[in-house]
């Protein structure tokens, strides 16, 4: 519907003063002016645009009002058949839904808005819709897809010479690269956005967004004073525009930084502000993040009730954003969009075929020509039916694949929840193990000191019952010290087993590493108990050379295997007597692209029924009191996970055991 010239002039003047653009502003004095103009505007396309502009002024402080005005603009646009206004209203509805955390509905609305903008050739509306789709992808952690949307939006805004909105897309791109840990690219993009906004401060909401994003990059780079300065400038901007959403996010990132700098009081203050501001505008993403942060802070203060309350808030927000139902809706939306595209292509092909048939039928003049044309049309119809059947089969196959993928996603989600629970248990166990070391050390020291006091150095030795009592006390103290030492060994092995992955591998002389750890194991074995001594045979292949390894970690694994071999032959010697000759053989060799280290001993071997379990944590074939059951498990993890090798065992009960380590050459 055409807009009267006087009304268009009035609208243009007001929009120039107010800073028309797709980036919404918070409620401002311009709101009242807009409402007065709207009261005298009839139901035409100019009223649609005024409704949308009025909705933008409420976005950052009263999103419900924005939603109401956008819906009213959509209804009026539909009655007027004003596709441009309908597309922009649909985009504004999608924007509010996204900020409420209704990501599937927001995605659906923005997809429809994008189609309407393209149909009406509204480049500015299309650029806005693409930017909003990028925001939804960013919320879903789909950063490559978000980058594609932002790049497309940036290109359109550049064509339209909308430099402030170009800056908005640049700062969003910077956020994506910051999440991808590409901090140099993120910093360069944020600096470009900051320079563009310095030339033109409208829209002001983009300024707060860019300042907050620059603070996040500076914090990641370790520039903490600069990060705080940007966050405070962002808060100042939100005060000027009553922008509760960006204010909430700025408070949250300041709280994170204070937590990182071990300033819990300041972190708690800003986290509370972030939560309250986010709740005021129903911004669930920040409600989730701020709630989780508050839960951590109150847990550290030993206030479990408050920690549980905020963790519950965060959990509700997380489920509303990323729950299985939301992912299912998004998958269904993507599938529906794909089906719609297939149907459109099929309809276009059918329409083309219909036009061709109509044109041929119009040329029929004689019976022979009619017969020929009908035969040709019949063949075309059969071909179209065949193609349609093939496409239907493809759609069915895609639907089945989607169902399988959805089932797999649900299974993975269940596994992730279980893994997170076990990770928490592991962290708790590691903390308990560390705390147990101090009382155990005190117990052993106390036992040793007590034994020294009972020895009565330089004094007459008691006799009779008193001496028996003292001997019994000494024996008990020795037992306490021994069991305390064993408990400490178990805790040390547990901590070693839970230690994070290995450090950076370096070229390592494997023969030298094997020889050194074999020497340590041999010297550490109680050889005085073995008669005759262990017959040690070694063969180091010079072709082995160097391998990429973490020497400390790999050495620990080899030392464990050598110590087990000496222990096995010692136990066999105790049982078999002097006629038994204990033997341990260690050799290295290169086999193609692999390096092998073989450790052989003629001990008791391992029963076939338990041989497959020797690498499991806390499984041991040693008697109670000997070993912790973590040595072979730790060696297995170091070799297979830390060095991408293999560790296998070959054994025969009562005769021998052979461990073979294979490492990439």
UniProtKB/TrEMBL annotation:
<keyword id="KW-0547">Nucleotide-binding</keyword>
<keyword id="KW-0812">Transmembrane</keyword>
<keyword id="KW-0472">Membrane</keyword>
<keyword id="KW-1133">Transmembrane helix</keyword>
<dbReference type="InterPro" id="IPR019734">
    <property type="entry name" value="TPR_rpt"/>
</dbReference>
<keyword id="KW-0802">TPR repeat</keyword>
<protein>
    <recommendedName>
        <fullName>histidine kinase</fullName>
        <ecNumber>2.7.13.3</ecNumber>
    </recommendedName>
</protein>
<feature type="domain" description="Histidine kinase">
    <location>
        <begin position="431"/>
        <end position="665"/>
    </location>
</feature>
<dbReference type="InterPro" id="IPR011990">
    <property type="entry name" value="TPR-like_helical_dom_sf"/>
</dbReference>
<dbReference type="InterPro" id="IPR005467">
    <property type="entry name" value="His_kinase_dom"/>
</dbReference>
<keyword id="KW-0175">Coiled coil</keyword>
<feature type="coiled-coil region">
    <location>
        <begin position="378"/>
        <end position="415"/>
    </location>
</feature>
<dbReference type="InterPro" id="IPR003594">
    <property type="entry name" value="HATPase_dom"/>
</dbReference>
<dbReference type="Pfam" id="PF02518">
    <property type="entry name" value="HATPase_c"/>
</dbReference>
<dbReference type="InterPro" id="IPR036890">
    <property type="entry name" value="HATPase_C_sf"/>
</dbReference>
<feature type="repeat" description="TPR">
    <location>
        <begin position="208"/>
        <end position="241"/>
    </location>
</feature>
<dbReference type="Pfam" id="PF13424">
    <property type="entry name" value="TPR_12"/>
</dbReference>
<keyword id="KW-0067">ATP-binding</keyword>
<dbReference type="InterPro" id="IPR004358">
    <property type="entry name" value="Sig_transdc_His_kin-like_C"/>
</dbReference>
<feature type="transmembrane region" description="Helical">
    <location>
        <begin position="358"/>
        <end position="377"/>
    </location>
</feature>
<dbReference type="GO" id="GO:0005524">
    <property type="term" value="F:ATP binding"/>
</dbReference>
């Amino acid at each position: 519907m055409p807009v009267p010239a006087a009304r268009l002039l009035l609208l243009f003047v007001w929009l120039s003063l107010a800073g028309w653009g797709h980036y919404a502003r918070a409620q401002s004095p311009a709101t009242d002016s807009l409402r007065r103009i709207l009261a005298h505007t009839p139901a035409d396309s100019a009223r649609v645009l005024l409704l949308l502009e009025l909705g933008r002024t409420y976005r950052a402080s009263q999103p419900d009002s924005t939603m109401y005005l956008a819906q009213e603009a959509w209804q009026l646009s539909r009655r007027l058949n004003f596709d441009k206004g309908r597309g922009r209203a649909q985009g504004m509805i999608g924007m509010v839904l996204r900020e409420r955390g209704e990501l599937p509905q927001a995605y659906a609305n923005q997809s429809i808005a994008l189609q309407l903008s393209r149909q009406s050739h509204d480049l500015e509306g299309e650029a806005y819709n693409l930017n909003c789709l990028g925001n939804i992808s960013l919320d879903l952690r789909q950063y490559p897809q978000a980058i594609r949307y932002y790049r497309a939006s940036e290109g359109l805004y550049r064509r339209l010479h909308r430099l402030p909105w170009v800056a908005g897309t640049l700062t969003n791109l910077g956020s994506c690269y910051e999440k991808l840990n590409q901090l140099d690219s993120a910093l360069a993009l944020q600096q470009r956005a900051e320079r563009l906004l310095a030339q033109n401060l409208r829209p002001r909401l983009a300024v707060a967004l860019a300042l907050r994003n620059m603070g996040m990059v500076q914090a990641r780079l370790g520039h903490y004073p600069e990060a705080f300065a940007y966050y405070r400038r962002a808060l100042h901007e939100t005060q000027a525009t009553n922008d509760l959403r960006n204010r909430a996010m700025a408070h949250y990132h300041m709280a994170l930084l204070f937590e990182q700098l071990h300033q819990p009081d300041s972190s708690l203050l800003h986290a509370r502000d972030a939560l309250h501001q986010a709740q005021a505008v129903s911004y669930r993403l920040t409600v989730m993040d701020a709630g989780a942060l508050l839960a951590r802070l109150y847990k550290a203060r030993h206030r479990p009730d408050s920690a549980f309350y905020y963790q519950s808030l965060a959990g509700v927000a997380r489920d509303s954003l990323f729950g299985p139902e939301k992912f299912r809706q998004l998958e269904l939306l993507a599938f529906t969009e794909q089906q719609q595209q297939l149907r459109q292509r099929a309809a276009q092909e059918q329409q083309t075929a219909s036009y061709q048939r109509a044109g041929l039928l119009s040329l029929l003049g004689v019976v022979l020509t009619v017969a020929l044309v009908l035969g040709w049309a019949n063949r075309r119809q059969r071909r179209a039916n065949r193609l349609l059947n093939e496409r239907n089969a493809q759609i069915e196959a895609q639907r089945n694949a989607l169902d399988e993928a959805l089932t797999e996603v649900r299974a993975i989600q269940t596994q992730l929840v279980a893994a997170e629970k076990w990770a928490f248990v592991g962290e708790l166990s590691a903390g308990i193990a560390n705390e147990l070391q101090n009382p155990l050390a005190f117990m052993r020291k106390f036992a040793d000191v007590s034994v020294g006091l009972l020895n009565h150095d330089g004094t007459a030795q008691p006799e009779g019952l008193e001496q028996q009592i003292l001997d019994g006390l000494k024996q008990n103290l020795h037992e306490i010290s021994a069991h305390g030492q064993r408990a400490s060994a178990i805790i040390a092995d547990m901590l070693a087993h839970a230690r994070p992955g290995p450090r950076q591998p370096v070229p390592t002389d494997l023969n030298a590493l094997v020889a050194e750890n074999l020497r340590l194991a041999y010297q550490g074995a109680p050889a005085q108990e073995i008669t005759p001594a262990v017959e040690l045979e070694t063969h180091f292949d010079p072709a082995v050379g160097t391998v990429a390894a973490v020497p400390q970690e790999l050495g620990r694994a080899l030392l464990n295997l050598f110590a087990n071999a000496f222990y096995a032959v010692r136990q066999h010697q105790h049982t078999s007597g002097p006629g038994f000759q204990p033997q341990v053989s260690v050799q290295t060799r290169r086999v193609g692209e692999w390096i092998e280290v073989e450790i052989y001993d003629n001990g008791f071997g391992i029963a076939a029924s338990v041989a497959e379990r020797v690498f499991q944590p806390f499984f041991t074939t040693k008697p109670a009191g000997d070993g912790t059951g973590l040595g072979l498990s730790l060696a297995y993890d170091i070799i297979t996970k830390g060095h991408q090798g293999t560790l296998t065992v070959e054994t025969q009960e009562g005769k021998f055991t052979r461990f073979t380590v294979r490492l990439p050459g």
